[in-house]
């Protein structure tokens, strides 16, 4: 039996391999999951994805499964509760950003019909295929992440710099950065 070829970045743990094989780079269209991935990528800023992935279940529990309306309604008491939760990243600015961003997602849903429609409008619904030969070639940002970051910041989104947005776009499958030799590349191309 031949071992599956994968992107090198995921090889550090079974959890990372499962995430790579099942989720990373798969086009995502569910508003709640799109919001969840945005908040998880915001929390990754300054940390490794492995750290966030190891806390992912805790994040879902602490943030009411990332129910957008519930998160948008969080008050200072809920923020204090989250600040005491050792299972998540206890950064007040990131917690407050999740709340502010949830309110903005609700506004986008009213304007666009869905958060999905807004996110995918930046590529007219198409996946940006990068055909990566060497992971060292993958940039931290690109024109798409710059443009989307600027548009989101203009709307008031927090912690949505181009680097965070690039990672987000990879995670939700708007950008396909699987290396050419990875078995997922052929599945997603």
Looking at this protein, list some descriptive labels.
2 strands; 10 helices; two-stranded parallel sheet; 189 residues; mainly alpha; 57% helix
Would you give an account of this structure?
The chain is an all-alpha fold. It is 57% helix and 2% strand. It is built from ten helices and two strands. The chain has a two-stranded parallel sheet. The chain is globular, with a radius of gyration of 16 Å. The two termini are 24 Å apart. The mean pLDDT is 96.
SSE arrangement:
Layout: H1 14-22, H2 31-44, H3 49-62, H4 68-72, H5 76-83, H6 92-112, H7 115-121, E1 128-129, H8 143-155, H9 162-171, E2 175-176, H10 183-188
Parallel strand pairs: 1-2
Helix pairs in contact: 2-3, 2-6, 2-9, 8-9
End-to-end Cα distance, whole Å, is 24 Å
Widest sheet: strand order?
1-2
CA radius of gyration? 16 Å
Low-confidence stretches: none
Largest sheet composition:
2 strands, parallel
How many β strands by DSSP? Answer: 2
Total number of helices: 10
Strand content: under 5%
Structural class by SSE content: mainly alpha
Mean pLDDT comes to 96
Q: How do the SSEs run, as a string of H and E?
A: HHHHHHHEHHEH
Summary of the model, kept short:
This protein has about 190 residues and is mainly α. It is about 55% helix and about 0% strand. It is globular.
